[in-house]
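The protein record quoted for completeness.
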Amino acid sequence: MGTEGHDLNQDRQLQQLESALGADLRRALRPEAAEPPARVDAAVAEMIRTRSGEVRRQLAAGRTRRWPVWAAAAAALLLAAGVWTAAVMGRGAGARRPDIIDAYLLERRIESGARLDAASDQNGDGRVDRADVEALARRAVEVRRKEGA
């Protein structure tokens, strides 16, 4: 039992020695506090304030100038998409052959009560009604023979 007490005492002494040496070693290796002189600190702070003001002004000026450019680009894109869609879908072409979709769209406009122009009168009776939808549908599905065949 005496050996155990002696071992515990030695362990405690070793821990105290390690702590003391570790603290001394940390103190010896700690770098000196490097505080910049007040005039250098003030000069750096002033440079930061000046540059951040310049950046804020540049960003504000850039925002006001870019808005019309983006708006114009978006309008041009929408216009191009509309023209392309009209060309691909065939809507808006004056002298084209009507299709069944035209008859469907005329029917929907009549049902909705939308105002219709005189060009929508397909059978020439002076009114735009269900008879015009039927006339348009007949023209859309009629089979035409090629000339010379």
